[in-house]
Write a structure and sequence with these properties.
Length: 251
């Protein structure tokens, strides 16, 4: 049974520890490894996957860091459901980020409507100052826990009618932009800096004002380099973390 669910692809170019980490995470998400259950030992997993214990330990340590597993000294490694949500900037869509880590994504709309672009937004979207934009403020939730307070800006000239419909309110905004306007987001630029939550942000995130947070400024682009979205968000610092992974590319 174990050999059927603990699987890796030896023809893949992904490092073995990455594949093992992903495989175990998916087993937890799908319920094949249940919350509170003891995971197989390093030695057992090394035998099952056919890799070294060092490779297994590297994968398990990363899953522990992400709160998918907990190690109890002298007892073993146990499955745990993460209380903190990992936000991966490498993922283009919040919806896909949450689904990937097994959490239910949802949003609460705080405010939406049209206004004129200020200089900062105009420069980001490469439009003229004063041009009409669609502004959308939402609280983004994972398993009904608020983790992001986000304000999105879109050019109405590029997305006509976006300000007069709420079709985008169900599911992923990026998916709606692709289906309705054939605007496929293919890349992001993201700037992060530490801030403290304001009274308004804290109220919507069910946190305390002054809680340490991360401010994210994100620019989304199509493959031709045209800006799609300019978004500013702050995180619930007590319930979320930003997770980065970098791999050396080949030229």
């Amino acid at each position: 049974m174990m050999n059927e669910i603990f699987v890796i692809d030896r023809s893949s170019k992904l490092p073995l520890y990455n594949q093992i980490e992903h495989n175990i995470r998916q087993l937890i998400i799908t319920g094949k490894l249940k919350n509170g259950e003891m995971a197989p030992s390093e030695w057992e997993l090394a035998q099952i996957y056919g890799v070294s214990r060092l490779t297994i330990r590297k994968a398990l340590d990363e899953l522990v860091r992400q709160n998918w597993l907990t190690k109890r000294q002298g007892v073993g490694t146990f499955v745990t459901k993460p209380l903190i949500t990992s936000i991966a900037p490498s993922e283009l869509s919040f919806t896909s980020q949450m689904l990937k880590i097994g959490k239910k994504p949802s949003s609460q709309i705080i405010q939406s409507g049209s206004e004129n672009a200020n200089l900062e937004i105009a420069n980001a979207l490469r439009i003229s100052e004063g041009d009409p934009i669609f502004k959308l403020t939402r609280v983004r939730l994972a398993d009904d826990q608020p983790i992001l307070y986000e304000t999105t800006h879109l050019s109405i000239a590029r997305f006509p009618g976006i300000d007069s419909t709420q079709e985008w309110s169900q599911g992923s905004l990026y998916e709606h932009l692709y289906v309705t306007y054939q605007a496929l987001v293919t890349s992001l630029e993201q700037t992060l800096k530490p801030v403290l939550l304001t009274e308004e942000q804290a109220r919507h995130l069910q946190a305390k004002a002054g809680t340490p947070s991360i401010l994210s400024i994100c620019l989304a682009y199509k493959s031709d380099g045209e800006p799609v979205e300019y978004a500013i968000s702050v995180s619930n610092g007590e319930m979320s973390e930003f997770y980065f992974t970098f791999k050396k590319g080949t030229n």
